[in-house]
Structures are given as structure tokens and as C-alpha cells.
Amino acid sequence: MDQVNGVFAAVDHVSFHYIQHGQEPLRALNHVSLDIQQGSHVAILGRNGSGKSTLARLINALELPSEGHIVVAGYDTQDHLNIWEVRRRCGMVFQNPDNQIVGTTVEEDVAFGPENLGVPQPQIRIAVDQALAKVNLSHVAERPPHLLSGGQKQKLAIAGILAMQPSCLILDEATSMLDPVTRTDFMALVAELIKEHGLTVINITHHMEEALLADRVVVMNDGHIVLSGTPADVFDRVELVKSQGLDVPVHGEILHRLAQLTGQKLLPLETASWASAQAGVIRILKTLTKKQQVQDMHETFDKGDDQPSQTTQNHEIIIRVENLSFTYSAGTTLESAALKDVTFDVRRGELLGIIGHSGSGKSTLIQHLNGLLRAQKGTVAVLDLDATDNHAIRKIRQRVGLLFQYPEHQLFEETIYQDIAFGPKRLGLEPAEINKRVLWAASIVGLKSDELERSPFELSGGQRRRAAIAGVIAMRPDVLILDEPAAGLDPAGREEILGYTAKLRDEGSTVILVSHSMEDIARLSDRVLALRDGRVVLFGTPAEVFSHPEILAAADLAVPKSAAFLRDLKAIYPSLSDHCYTTESAALELLRAGSEACQ
Amino acid sequence: MMSNISLGRYYPTRSILHALDPRTKVLASILMMALIFIASDPLPMAVIGVLTLFLVALSRVPFKQVLISLRPMLFILLFAAVLNMLTVSGNVLWQLGPIRITDQGLFTALRMASRLVLLILNTTLLLTLTTTPIHVSDALENLLSPFKRLGFPAHEMAMMMSIALRFVPTLLEETDKIMKAQSSRGADYDTGGLISRARGLVSVLIPLFVSAFKRAEDLATAMEARCYRGGDSRTRLRIMRYQLADGLFATLSIAVATGLLIWQFAN
């Protein structure tokens, strides 16, 4: 019964409306048809609100189509008697690791599914042990789940599904709260399960690298399927994909931009892989004529390197951290050293990027900069104030704004306006000044005046994120610390939030940006601080820091992809600088070096 | 900030008391409660006291750890004792103005205090220190399941308890995070007047509630996706089985209880 003509799930002209009380029904899907082959790996891409998660919920019979039919493993989800058959065959991993764990211990959580199916106890035991072994969690079987890392929690979610012996795994943005290394590790596990068990995988994601692992990519927008095909086919249509608010792989984008700059046409599937894109670059640069060079050189000459436009090298130092060490739960069995002998400084007006894998001490470090944590050893001086002194901390908090990950959860006032005004009010400002600041902050993050009068809980996640950011910048801090401000957003939303960061820096604020994205850090920062296991391993300009691929690799970090792409072409174009951190600058740099080569 | 709060204070070690079936321990603690309330003379009280010490030895939990469980109740204990001492009439032993202590009062206060102490010690020993909360919840579900026919939601209650236990650490962590985020915006939770502090509390509680509801919604979806549809025809990974030790423990408890009851009514 599980196999019907090789098609695992058939979505046939399905529409779906969310019924909201007292409002127009919200159309999430509009006549979508899609066949998912047994044993295939399908990636579904699309902006937030494009309907991709709705599609996943329909396939798992968590929602039922308003129109049309979905047949999963031979069971039509419209029939109420079938929904349990569908759900036991399709396991679903959700976005938030914490909100899908039911059990008070790891093994109990894995047992939850089989228990619901009424599997006899001896078999549950076997299924739980096997599932935990497969995801490498056997050693924590009896631990309470809140002690697991984010990556382990998502693996636990997979184990809970495997124990039900499913034929399909649906990942609903399952990796969006994980860091890049953990994400790669998680996807490697998924690939292994596909190989071993012939599972059908449907991966809803914002990450293009994950889409490249699939057999088939489906791009959705506004409740429709706009594109579908192999990853190579889909990402070959660079402009169409980008117009959907999505990213294409860096190599494809550089090649595409280079072709645009030189007026050349790309060969079919030339963007498909790293190697084919490099071959494409060489092919295009060979065809360059002298005439074209003269034309293009004028605009390209001074654009090659991504060096910061205005230098902050001589600016005063406003944060000075010396030999800072910090240990959690010192003197107990849970003791863990989070920071070891950290020394660095921050200059007024600069954008300092902090990189490091999960658990490297980034979050502990930034909490020292506004006195949320007090230095146990070493000194932290912020704006000439001692960040361990209680009186100084009050002043420091007024001048150092700190925004944690997923800040939209901290909104609490009746309206967005009042929430943004909370910080300025606590500063004891005059009402007129508060009003001015709220409107200014709202304008920076692009909140409209009618949105300011609405409740934070009526807005979308992206709007709430903006409001939370405005709440901190309205305090006009001397230093703004942002911990992964773009986490969990789609590529277009990400770009927008990072845009504000750059804007604030250009207006003279000092910004400290914590991010897992080497690309973002490299192109935005004046200086970069790299942490590994609580120690500073590299500190300097992006060009300095990203010239040490070995040290970065040892810290589970990497060189930005565009720089790596150029580095691989250095053998052919020796004059190529690899300090280009955007696809635009990389394409221009290739053009420059290519022109030089044919002179 | 909140990481030092621990709930239930289960003391992990291996002992006869730890290994008993949780149902045995629930029933035994109910029996103990009844005995403590029925016993009113010093002799049966002393016997129960000795029995309690015997349980402490069986549990292999350090005596200090056991006494710590009394700490939160200390105020109520003293209050009840003093109240009894001062209000019960009898032969005056000592008097200062309107305050007087009588022999009857002293006796009642002592009896009251020892009752409370024994009650607390026995329940914490049997149910908190040697049994994980989830086992207590299992035991209650199992013991109450005969009442399902009368419409008593035994499974639902146990599921609620287990989910609450699962999410307490998560929500504590979240509280910590929200407090830090609001502190960064100038909220002050330690100093300032009553109104300012209450206002501070609002800035923590609202985001916390909103997030708890969101989590509840997500969790419900995740549970449905894993085919949860209530307690009927559900099986369990953890199976409770009465062992020989349970039989012996139950026999001894009943014997002691019967002995005490007979003595009590004979007098």
C-alpha cells in the first residue's frame, strides 16, 4: 500500500485558506499540484508566507485542503479515517527544537510516538534504543532534554520519528535555529538516513546549500509553485530565483554577474557547480577584447577590494577588555569555562564583527559589555566606566544597547509605539524627545505610522523583529550590540535587517555584530574578532582575519565563499586579490584581473 | 539568575527505597499520613518517629539532606506551635501580662509540631527524595485509572503534570533571557519603588505568557503529528511492576499500622 506508482505523495489542485475570526479568509495555497516520488529528496524554497509550511502541514494531514486532494502513500487525507495512517508514515521535524519535545527524558521522548501507536512495551524498548543509536544520542538517553544542545534536540526530534518507522521525513525549517556547523552535521545525518532507509525527504528551508543536496527543488511564492526542477536547473535561473527574494549559490551568482558585466551569455548549467562556475569564469575572461577593457576599467578600478570606505583606525577606544575570564557554575560539577584571557578593544564608530561557533563564548562575552555578567578575572572598561561597578553599570546600560537573538519575544507593551518608547522613558527623557526618538527609530527600521499604533502581537514575526530593534536604537546608545539580528529570516529579510546595521554605523554609531555568517561579517565589519573555545584566535581587519583559512577551520569557521572562489582562481590570475566579500566585488575583481591577464 | 532553582529535589542514588514501585510509595505515604493524624499519644508518635528514621536509613539519603526539606515549612511550623502554646487553656506554667503558657498548651504545641515534622519528612522521603516526579505522576495515573469510568481524567492529569515538568526548566531559562533583555532596555528589577518593580514584573510576565502560549500551540501540533490522540490504547515505555520488595514493604507497613491502630483504640 505504501508504494503507488512510485509516487509517495500526490498533491492535486490543492487550495487552502486559513480562517481567521472576523477577517477575510487568508489564502495560503492556490491550486497547487505536485507529485513527490517515493524515496526522493525534495527541497521547498520560498519567502516567509509563501505557503511552503502550509504545504508541509497538508501533506502530514495536520491541516486538510479547502479544495483538491492530497494522497499520501495511497491514503487520501480528506478522509478522516486516514489521517492517522498518513501521520504515522510522515514524521515532521519543526523549527523550534524546544517546542516539540514532550518527554521528560530523552528516551521517553523517543518513545512518545510508538506509545501513541500502541506498540507493545518490549518493541518500544527496541525501537527507542535503535533510533537513539542512529542519531548518536544513546549516551544521553536518560538525560532531561533541556540539557541538550540545539543540534542534539533536533536529532532527538528525528529519533522520535524514526522510532515510528516512517517512510517520509518532513523538515519544516528544522535547521533555521542551528549554527552552520551544526546544520551541516544535521543534514549529513539526514543524507545518511535517506541512503540507509530509502526515506522520502521533504525539506522546507531558507538555506540554499541545503537545497543543493536535494534531487528536486520547488520554489513557492504567494501560494503558487513558481519553479520546479533539479537544483542545477533552478539555480541556473539566477534572476528569477533572486526575484523571489531567495539566494542562489555564491559561485553561480559571481559567474552570472560577470556575464552581465561583460555582456556575455552563459552556457546551459554553467552555474551548476563550483567547478563548472570556475570554468565559466575562465571561458568568459578569455573572450574579453581590448575594447571592452577600456570601457569597463574606468568604473571598476577603485571598486575591487572591499575595504571599509572610511577608516576608523585613529578613533578613540571606547571599550577595552583585558584578560577577561569567566567560568559558569565555578566550583560545581557543572563548571565550564566560557571565556579565557580575552583581550580586545572597540573604537568609536567602527563595526566590530564577532564570529565563533556555538559555545565559543560569544554570548557570554557580549553580556560583559553592558554589565549583565560581571568579570570574574580581568577588566572590562566601557566608555571609561568600570563594568563591574554597580553604579557604573546603570550608566553603561544607558549607553550600550544589547539586542539578543530573537528579540521579538521581548515585546510587551500595548502598542508598538509604547514598546519602542520603553527604553527612552527609562532614560528619563522629556516626552517630546521620546516622541522624536520613537519616530526616528521607527523610520530607520521602516515601520509605518499606522503600524506603531497596533499591538505587537498583531504583527508578523518580521515586523515584530523590526520593532524590537527600534526599541533599542531609540535609546540612541553609543554602542549597539546585536546578537544574530537576522537569525531565522529568509534571505530578503536578512538583507534588510543587515542594511539597518550598516546604516546605523554610517550614522556614527559603534556597532558590535555577532553572526554565524562569514559573508555578512566580512562585508560589513571594520574589524573582526574570532573566538574558539572562549579564546581569541584572530583579531584584525577582515582582510587580516580571513587570510588564515587554517586557523578559521580549526575554530569551525571559514573564509567567505566569494573570497574562497577567487582564491581557487589565483593560480590562473595571479594578480587576483581574494579580499572580496560580496559577489558584486568578486565579479568586478575578476574582470579587473582578467583584463590585466590579456594585456 | 534562576539556574539555582531546582524542583522536587530528587536525590539520585541506589537504595531499597529508590527501587520500590512508585505506587507502593504513594500508597505508603497515604497510610503514613493517616497514621500520623490518628496517633495522638506520645508512644505511637515515638514509634512513627523511629520508623521514619528507619526509612531515612533505607533511603541512603544523607540525614542533612532530609532535614533541608523542613526549611521551607519552618515558619508555618513555628507559627502553629506558638499559636497552640498561647491559646490552649490548662494549668498555667508561666505568665507575663496577658501572655501565658499552660501545660496543655505546651503539650498540644509539641504534638502539633511533631505531627507536621513527621508528615513532611515522610512525604518528602517517599515521594520527593527517592522518587522522580515523573514516576509519581505515573503512579497517580495508574492508581486513579479505575476512576476513569466515572469520568475522572487520570491520563490527562498525568500528561499535564509530565508536560509541566518538561517545560519548567525551559521557561526558567526563558525568564532569565527576558529579564536580561529588559534590563538592557533599562528595566530595573532589584531597586526602585514598589510601583517601578511591579511595572518591571509586567515587562517579564507578558512576554513569558505570550511565549508559553506559543509553545503550547507548537507542542500540540508536534504531539498531533506524532499521532497523539489521548490515553486510550496507548502503551508505555516505562512499565511499573510490583516486586518482592514491594510486597514485603507493604506487609510490614500494614502490620505496623494495624499494631498502632489496635493500641490506639485499646486505650
Properties at a glance:
heterodimer; A: 599 residues; alpha/beta; Rossmann fold; 3 domains; six-stranded mixed sheet; 24 helices; 20 strands; 21% strand; B: 267 residues; mainly alpha; 2 domains; two-stranded antiparallel ribbon; 69% helix; flat; disordered N terminus
Output the radius of gyration of chain A.
Answer: 26 Å
CATH superfamily of the largest domain in chain A: P-loop containing nucleotide triphosphate hydrolases
- Which structural class best describes the helix and strand composition of chain A? alpha/beta
Query: How many distinct folded domains of chain A?
Result: 3
| Low-pLDDT segments of chain B | 1-7
Secondary-structure element order of chain B, N to C: HHHHHEEHHHHH
DSSP helix fraction of chain A: 25-40%
**What Rg of chain B is obtained from the alpha carbons, in whole angstroms?**
24 Å
What is the count of structural domains of chain B?
Answer: 2
Query: Which pair of chains has the greatest number of interface residues, and how are they split between the two chains?
Result: A-B, 63 and 48 residues
Helix content of chain B: 55-70%
What low-confidence regions of chain A span 5 or more consecutive residues with pLDDT below 50? 300-304
Number of separate helices of chain B = 10
Oligomer: heterodimer
Mind telling me the CATH class of the largest domain in chain A? Alpha Beta
Q: How much of the polypeptide of chain A forms β-strand, as a percent range?
A: 15-25%
3D architecture notes:
Chain A has 599 residues and is of the alpha/beta class. Chain A has 3 domains: 7-241, P-loop containing nucleotide triphosphate hydrolases (Rossmann fold), CATH 3.40.50.300; 250-307 and 562-597, no CATH class; 317-540, Rossmann fold (3-Layer(aba) Sandwich). Chain A is built from 24 helices and 20 strands. A 6-stranded mixed beta sheet of chain A has the order 6-7-8-3-9-10, with helices on both faces. In chain A, strands 16-17-18-13-19-20 form a 6-stranded mixed beta sheet, with helices on both faces. In chain A, a hairpin with a 2-residue loop joins strand 4 and strand 5. With 267 residues, chain B is mainly alpha-helical. Chain B has 2 domains: 16-131 and 239-266, no CATH class; 166-225, no CATH class. Chain B is 69% helix and 3% strand. Chain B is built from 10 helices and 2 strands. Chain B has helices at 16-19, 22-38, 42-59, 63-68, 74-87, 103-129, 133-144, 154-184, 194-225, 244-266, and strands spanning 92-96, 99-102. In chain B, strands 1-2 form a two-stranded antiparallel sheet. In chain B, a hairpin with a 2-residue loop joins strand 1 (92-96) and strand 2 (99-102). In chain B, helix 7 (133-144) runs antiparallel to helix 8 (154-184). The longest helix of chain B is centred in the last third of the chain and has 32 residues, at 194-225. Chain B is flat. Chain B starts with 15 loop residues before the first helix and ends with a helix. The interface between A and B is large, with 63 and 48 residues.
